[in-house]
Design a protein that fits this description.
This protein is an all-alpha fold and 242 residues long. It contains eight helices and no strands.
Length: 242
């Protein structure tokens, strides 16, 4: 019994000592976590501030205009084609399926197309933007359904290349450390385009009848191409921050 009493006293003293020590630990631990969190926030803020937006804003503007052109064109595609050529929903589906097949096959070939340009993504983006503008202009003036379908398939080829080349061009003109920031910004820009395009397409139809979306798309695509033509020429080399 004496031994048990001594053990109980020793155990109670140990617990009191442990509780006293635990009271001091949270403050120091919390202080350490606060300092560490502040350092991380300051580091992230510094990295965000070091993004060279001047080297990519032209590309983002061009991407916004070219993306908006395609979104306006596709907003009321079936209605527009039916009004222009008197097609049925079945025929409209065939035309859309043809463009989807061309776009899918082009996606497999984008890497080979980039190899032809020796990795010069800016030139790939510029040429695909020019092709997109020409296709939209041909579609807006196509007198027959056959020419319209041909231009629509060619447009699917150009946009498939443009989507990849635009993002690669943005990443090539910036630091690798800011890849996530740039991809998120591009997604935000395109989300704004998706929000505005249906309204723009509807207004163009009200003003210019069923030719409105094609004409507005051509104008937007041409504006994006002009931005790429006048933007400063920069080497497609990624700069790594120290």
């Amino acid at each position: 019994m004496l031994v048990q009493a001594v053990l109980r006293v020793a155990d109670s003293e140990f617990r009191q000592t442990q509780l006293a020590a635990d009271k001091d630990l949270p403050s120091s631990s919390k202080h350490h976590r606060t300092l560490h969190g502040n350092e991380n926030e300051e580091g992230l803020a510094a990295k965000t501030e070091r993004v060279d937006w001047q080297s990519v804003w032209e590309i983002m503007v061009a991407q916004f205009l070219l993306g908006s052109a395609m979104l306006v064109y596709r907003a009321d595609f079936s209605v527009t084609v039916s009004q222009r050529y008197g097609t049925s929903n079945t025929v409209n589906g065939y035309i859309s399926a043809l463009a989807s097949i061309v776009g899918t096959l082009t996606g497999f070939a984008v890497g080979h197309i980039a190899d032809i340009y020796a990795g010069n993504t800016r030139r790939v983006f510029l040429h695909s933007a020019i092709a997109e503008s020409v296709c939209l202009l041909a579609i807006a003036n196509a007198p027959t359904l056959m020419l319209f379908s041909t231009g629509h398939a060619a447009l699917a080829f150009a946009t498939s290349v443009s989507r990849v080349a635009s993002l690669q061009t943005i990443l090539a003109h910036s630091s690798q450390q800011h890849t996530g920031t740039l991809i998120g910004t591009v997604a935000t820009v395109m989300s704004v385009a998706r929000m505005l395009s249906p309204t723009a397409s509807g207004l163009s139809q009200e003003v210019l009848s069923y030719y409105g979306p094609a004409i507005l798309s051509t104008a937007l695509s041409t504006a994006g191409t002009i931005v790429l033509l006048i933007m400063p020429s920069k080497t497609d080399i990624k700069t790594h921050a120290a």
